[in-house]
Amino acid sequence: MIKSQLNRPHRLLAVWRDERFLRLLGQIVFLAILAAFLGYLARNMLNNLRQQGIGLGFDFLPLTAGFDIGEHLIPYDRSQSYLRAFEVGLLNTALVASLGIFFATILGVFFGITRLSSNFLIQSIARAYIEFLRNMPLLVLLIFLYTGVFIQFPRVRQAITLPGPVLISNRGIAIPWGMPADTFPLFLRILGLGILLAIGTGLALTWLGRRTGRAPLVWLWGILIFIATAVVGWFALPSAPLNLDIPAVQGLRLAGGQQLSPEFMALLTGLVVYTSAFIADVVRSGIQAVAHGQVDAAKSLGMSGFHIMRLIVFPQALRVIVPPLTSQYLNLTKNSSLAVAIGYPELFHVAGTVNNQSGRAVEVIVLVMSIYLSISLLTSAFMNWYNRRVRFVER
Amino acid sequence: MAGELTSRSGILPPPTERYTWLGWVQKNLFSTWYNALLTVLSLGLVYAILKPFTIWLLTQARWEVIEVNIRLLMAGQYPLEQLWRAWLCLHLLAAIVGLSWGIWVRGRRLVGIGLLLVPLALAAFPNIGPSVRMHLLAMDGVAVIAFGVGRLGGKSLQRTVIGAWVLYFPLVLLIIRGITSGEGLLPIVGTNLWGGLLLTFLLTVVGISFSFPIGVLLALGRRSRLPAIRWTSIIYIEVIRGVPLVTILFMASTMVPLFLPNGVRPDRVLRAMIGITMFSAAYLAENVRGGLQAIPHGQYEAAHALGLSGFQTMTLIILPQALRTVIPVLMGLFIALYKDTSLVVTIGLLDLLGISRSILAQPNFVGYQHEVFLFISLIYWVFSYFMSYISQRLEVALGVGER
């Protein structure tokens, strides 16, 4: 009887009073308005493009780019296609982002830990560093580093020589670099073998750890095994896989070694220094988030200071640190697009040039935005996976 | 025995930690041998950095580049005879801050005096014009009077002052832009003449005031039960958050004219404002969503039980609580936006950073990078640090996370 009473109103309701119908109607109206708005924008765009005589579509990508790119990781010259230019830019972004993430992490962890030092002076230096950088726009830092530091170094003829030798001039910095010899491909295979061995060792140690109940130093042993394989491989080969190339001043330019342009150095330094301040804060708050009782409990179990850090504090801090850390990595990658202001040819800078050359603003923007978007979606997918894995499982 | 345990006469109070400055040094700098070593090393490092910097600052720095260009840096090419409008905005700000201080803060005398000292210190600079000095002193006067009024008015003024804060930002825009075309009290000043710190501030203010309603709507949309609205919000938020601001500015500057009917071409400042608003709305939406999620479900149920409609529940019960909890986070967003406005140089606007670059490009100011960049980073830093201080105070005052 109750059931029939509950059902009755539904049957009697007029259709325009039915909540389900209203919801559906609301959504349809909303979508219709949205579609009309987007359609209006699209029609305007098509009209404007037609008047300017520009087509729409990605058919311009295989055309000849016709502009040079100063730095390229893959062979490139002006006779190659726009697509190739985009690839060059994307690789440059990847280069500066990965190096930036590597160094920013080291510097950030360093300042995050010194920020918690019991030594007042050290702690104050770290705090000053963090507060100074956090309240300053990255672009100001980048432009200052470029126009005020890296192109203010002495001319090539008077280049500063640091031991190494590292040559510093206003045309860039040159460092000694290994040039691949003919045994290099073989050496790469040995490195691959080293990675496999390291993973094998890690798995074996983890299995052993499960059985004995002792926490093994998986990472330490894995890395040691890898290094050992690399060293053995280096000397076992008939000739060294890499030849040392030493930079030198040659007339009006630097020659040899690895050349790092002022643009690249300014961008990398700026990104590393700026992001490290944010990472330092993430690390500090992560360590502070571990409840003090945890350390006390570990001490009362008789654990040593090193063991407390490694087994109690660190794993718990990591759970707090990793999500904001990943978003800092993502910020660094996205911020690398600011190189457009100092002229390092990463993805966005190349895209700007392509736009000027081809006049295909819409396609260029769509392409660049979707590349950045896929990078950040991949990162957040990783982050969600990680969060699920390390989530604190409560009863 | 029992008497001994319960009587308090024989028990000494716990020792209080009290030490001389020597004791402090011993505890904080030289507690162990490695701490002593670190102290010495870092003292050396600080000396090595500060010594050349101080020498440069006191003997080599040539500050005439700032002196000559101070008006450009502050207000760009805003017409000289209209500059009183910028000052008017500052006086209004001083009045509102003074009122709020009188009503809510009261104590914290040191910080208040410190704030009053800023215009005084600026007025003490030797090479500034008499009218600038007068305006700076007048700002302090206005702030002190407003403080007194706020003190006397107390709670009865609260609503008025909150309203004044809300109205302040649109009012500033109106004053700076002007109303009447041609001659009149407030002739329109074209946005192409806006520049320097003024433009930086206006971009920030516009960004935050326009992105606020959009962001709140997006946050509500993302929690909507209607899939069409929810997914539209999610797509917008995630796309915007996934791309760098420069790409959005670039899009705003090249595509906005394409999207509009033929012949309508908004100027570059307006395009930058559109881009910045689109960008910060997405971030604001995520922050507000955080606040919405923190509201316990019982609040919805209680509102439902009282017979409030969905709209009433949102506007009267949920949003006031949610927005209150996210105010400190919004301040953080405000700071980030303030710093991010510097990116408009990539589309050729002359904000504080842009105008500095164009000053440095003048032949007679080549090689003044260090002075100019030190000056503008100081400006960026001071305001940003001040805002983060306010946000920390607000966090304490609102008791976020304590209820």
What is the rounded distance between the termini of chain A? 41 Å
The tally of structural domains of chain B comes to 2
CATH fold field value of one domain in chain A: MetI-like fold
Report the count of strand segments of chain A.
Answer: 8
Which second-level CATH architecture of the largest domain in chain B applies? Orthogonal Bundle
Structural class of chain B: mainly alpha
Provide the β-strand percentage band of chain A.
Answer: 5-15%
Overall outline of chain B: globular
Biggest sheet character of chain A:
4 strands, antiparallel
**What is the ordering of alpha helices and beta strands of chain A?**
HHHHHEEEEHHEEEEHHHHH
Tell me the strand percentage band of chain B: under 5%
Poorly predicted tracts of residues of chain B:
1-5
Note the total helix count of chain B. Answer: 16
Major sheet of chain B, described briefly?
none
Order of helices and strands of chain B: HHHHHHHHHHHHHHHH
Assembly of the depicted chains: heterodimer
Which CATH top level class of the largest domain in chain B fits?
Answer: Mainly Alpha
Provide the low-confidence segments of chain A as ranges: 1-5
In one word, what is the shape of chain A?
globular
Write up this protein.
The complex is a heterodimer of chains A (395) and B (403). Chain A has 395 residues and is α+β, with helices and mostly antiparallel strands. Helices cover 67% and strands 7% of the residues of chain A. Chain A is built from twelve helices and eight strands. In chain A, helix 5 packs across helix 8, helix 6 (184-212) packs antiparallel against helix 7 and helix 10 packs antiparallel against helix 12 (361-390). The longest helix of chain A is centred in the first third of the chain and has 34 residues, at 19-52. Residues 1-5 of chain A have low confidence and may be disordered. Chain B has 403 residues and is mostly helical. Chain B has two domains: 79-188, no CATH class; 197-403, MetI-like fold (Orthogonal Bundle), CATH 1.10.3720.10. Chain B has 16 helices and no strands. Chain B has helices at 2-6, 21-28, 33-60, 64-75, 84-105, 109-123, 130-153, 158-177, 196-222, 227-242, 245-259, 268-293, 297-305, 310-340, 352-360, 369-398. In chain B, helix 5 (84-105) runs parallel beside helix 7, helix 11 (245-259) packs across helix 12 and helix 12 packs across helix 14 (310-340). Chain B starts with a helix and ends in a 5-residue tail after the last helix. The chains are: A alpha+beta (395), B mainly alpha (403). At the A-B interface, helix 2, helix 4, helix 5, helix 11 and helix 12 of A face helix 3, helix 10, helix 11, helix 14 and helix 15 of B.
